[in-house]
Structures are given as structure tokens and as C-alpha cells.
Amino acid sequence: MNLSGIATEIRLKIFSELLVLSEPINFVADYSPPSPPLFRQRRDGLYLAILRPARAILHEAHVRNLQLIRDTCTSIQTLELLIPPERYNYALSYSLIAIEALDLLNTRLKSILSLKETIVHFQVYPEGDVSDDLIKKMNNYGWAVKVIKLLKRVWISWDNRVEFDNEEDCNAYNKEQFRREEERREEEEKELWLDEYYRRRCDPY
């Protein structure tokens, strides 16, 4: 079915749910949610990752983020990049890989002709720091680099309800919550099965 063939009021509802955001758009370079339904539980509306059928598609999509910005934000002048601690340690801790990645990023940014300023925000914990060589290289590209010192490192549970000061306790909490959720689902399935069983006994036809 062609989208334009849908009734106007329904089409506008779809647009308002999926395509219109009042807050800034965050582009996350990641593979895919480990469990999309967990994301859906945190939202009132739909979560687009659930509609994408393959992990490969999500992986390919983040590579095109800058192309998407270039093609749709044709008048963009300032681009701010936020690198949280876990991303810095994962992607930029190996110098050779980091240099190649930054060179590629710089090439892609140059293709955005309207772009005048690039600002990179590094979030680091008190015990961490950003490599001086890395900052120097970014400055050589003409990027502004800002280091944001976080107060302390915290781990947040999957349901966003509890903060922990260590990863071990956070993982233990998550594991227990997943176990309880699984028990709840099994109990619901059991009740549904019993309801259906007794219904058929009372009315086999």
C-alpha cells in the first residue's frame, strides 16, 4: 500500500508518532539494542528498531548517519559530537585504529559543505583522561575539543530505576529482574492455558 493512499488523519498520526520529535535528534553509532522490547517498555509510542528486521541493517544504518545529516540538514553549520566514557574506551583506546577512524570521519565531515564548526565533547570519569595526542589531532582538523569531568562513575539498571557504584551489583540486579520478569510471564501463560482448558471442558464445541 502506498503511504499517500492512507487517509489523511491516519497519515498525520503516523507522522506525529514516528517522524516528529520536539527534542534534539541523537545519532547513536551502535549495532542494535540487545532486546528491542526493553526499549519499547520505556516509551509510550513505537520504537523504530523493532521494525527493522536484521542486525546488519542497524549496523549499516549508523555508517550513513553523516550522509543523512549532509543530505537532510543542508544548512547545518555546527555539529556537536558527544563521546561518553564507554565509547571512548571502546573505539579510541587503540591509537592506530583511532587515527584511521578520525581520518575517515574528517573526510566525511568535509563533505558537509555548510558545516563551519565541529565540537567534540569527551565525558571522562575522575580517574580517566583523554590522550593529548588525540586532542592534538582533532585540533589539527580544526575541531574544538571539550573535556567534561563526570562526578563519579555509575551503572544504571536496564529499567532506569536504580543506580549502582559498581558493575557487578548492577548486573546482579538486572539478572534478578530478568528472572522475575520471566517468572511473571510464565505465570501469565499458565493462567491463560488453564482458562482455555476449563473453557473447553465446559464448552467442548
List the helices and strands and how they pair.
Elements: H1 8-18, H2 36-41, H3 55-63, H4 65-72, E1 78-83, H5 85-91, H6 95-110, E2 117-124, H7 132-140, E3 144-149, E4 155-156, E5 163-164, H8 167-202
- Counted by DSSP, the helix tally is 8
- Secondary-structure element order, as H and E? HHHHEHHEHEEEH
Secondary-structure class: mainly alpha
The helicity comes to 40-55%
| Count of strand segments | 5
Instruction: Please outline the major beta sheet.
Output: 3 strands, parallel
Mean pLDDT: 73
**Total tally of structural domains:** 3
- The strands making up the biggest β-sheet line up spatially as 1-2-3
- Computed Rg: 23 Å
Net shape: flat
Strand-residue proportion: 5-15%
Low-confidence spans: pLDDT under 50, at least 5 residues?
28-61
Termini Cα gap? 39 Å
Explain the overall architecture:
The protein is mainly alpha-helical and 205 residues long. It folds into three domains: 1-63, no CATH class; 74-153, no CATH class; 154-205. The protein has eight helices and five strands, in the order ααααβααβαβββα. The strands form two sheets. Strands 1-2-3 form a three-stranded parallel β-sheet. Strands 4-5 form a two-stranded antiparallel sheet. Helix 7 (132-140) links the parallel strand 2 and strand 3 (144-149). The radius of gyration is 23 Å and the shape is flat. Mean pLDDT is 73; it is low at 28-61.
